[in-house]
Inverse folding.
């Protein structure tokens, strides 16, 4: 009687995988699934690659619009595991109609994003990028590099969930006055001395404003032209959450007027198709982004706040559990569209 050969594990296609992530993803799925890691993002052009795969894995810069989801469903895909907390890139109503299960990572290390938000704030406050560029040219002048003590000044935290709370703890360590705005007050932030105020007051009184809310219909362009005009001329604005929270064209208009000590942006409202890709040999067609990066008081990074080994390990671990839960018929807090 011949020896039975075990069937090979079913393959998963993972889109938008960074080179640092690939070995972590392959190791996490070992023993459960083979993983085909692709550096291309899922969109209308790449969706046919998923044909024949029951489960696919996506990143936040993949575009899962109704046409992409229809292609996935037609190709046999039944489950989408998003390696991110945000899900505004997925047409959830269409996924539900097509019977596609969708899960995300509801939380991971809040310190990764909070610490990076502070990295941006300190970098623009103390002119670190300009100073580094100068010293590489052996220009050791201090002209134009003067920053400000943050101790005793006011930090305005818009969104005081896990990440906002972590940001607030660091602000408290700096000895800052704390103002918060959110739909619900966080008891931990209150214990740190935070005062919850209307958004308008927070913007008007804060020396540093940091955004930590999700991108939802009610928060889209939360920082619009009026909000920007209400801020102090010498304020610092940091966004490490979602690009769509800020009206970027309005921000450019304010910067052209010479406003703000510094702006640190890890996200951009039109980042899809740009961030995580090498565009250095191409003409930049996005006029707003091209203008934005020319301001000496603006620092733009490419959606890397979450990108620590600790956070990525947690994200991938949660993604593996989401896939195994789907296969076992279990439902967790990470499920956005349940199995039909």
């Amino acid at each position: 009687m011949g020896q039975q050969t075990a069937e090979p594990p079913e393959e998963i296609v993972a889109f938008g995988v960074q080179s640092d992530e690939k070995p972590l993803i392959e190791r996490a799925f070992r023993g459960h699934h083979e993983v085909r890691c692709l550096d291309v993002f899922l969109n209308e052009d790449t969706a046919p690659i998923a044909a024949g795969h029951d489960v696919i894995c996506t990143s936040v810069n993949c575009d899962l619009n109704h046409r992409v989801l229809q292609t996935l469903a037609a190709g046999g895909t039944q489950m989408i595991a998003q390696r991110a907390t945000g899900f505004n890139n997925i047409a959830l109503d269409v996924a539900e109609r097509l019977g596609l299960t969708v899960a995300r990572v509801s939380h991971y290390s809040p310190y990764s994003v909070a610490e990076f938000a502070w990295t941006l704030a300190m970098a623009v406050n103390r002119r670190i990028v300009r100073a580094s560029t100068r010293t590489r040219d052996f220009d050791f002048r201090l002209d134009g590099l003067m920053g400000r003590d943050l101790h005793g000044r006011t930090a305005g935290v818009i969104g005081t969930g896990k990440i906002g709370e972590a940001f607030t703890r660091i602000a408290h360590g700096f000895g800052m006055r704390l103002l918060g705005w959110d739909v619900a007050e966080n008891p931990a932030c209150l214990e740190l001395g935070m005062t919850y105020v209307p958004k308008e007051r927070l913007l008007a009184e804060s020396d540093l404003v940091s955004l930590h809310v999700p991108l939802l219909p009610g928060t889209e362009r939360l920082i619009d032209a009026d909000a920007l005009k209400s801020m102090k001329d010498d304020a610092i604005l940091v966004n490490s959450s979602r690009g769509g929270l800020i009206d970027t064209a309005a921000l450019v208009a304010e910067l052209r007027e010479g406003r703000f000590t510094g702006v640190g942006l890890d996200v951009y409202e039109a980042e899809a198709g740009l961030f995580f890709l090498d565009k250095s040999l191409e003409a930049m067609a996005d006029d707003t982004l091209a203008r934005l990066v020319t301001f000496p008081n603006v620092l733009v990074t490419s959606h890397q706040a979450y990108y620590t080994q600790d956070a990525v390990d947690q994200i991938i671990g949660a993604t593996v559990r989401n896939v195994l839960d789907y296969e076992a018929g279990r439902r967790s807090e990470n499920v956005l569209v349940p199995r039909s």
Notes: Residues 156 and 179 are 5 Å apart (CA to CA). Residues 1-6 have pLDDT under 50 and may be disordered. The longest helix spans residues 309-328. The first strand starts at residue 11 and ends at 14.
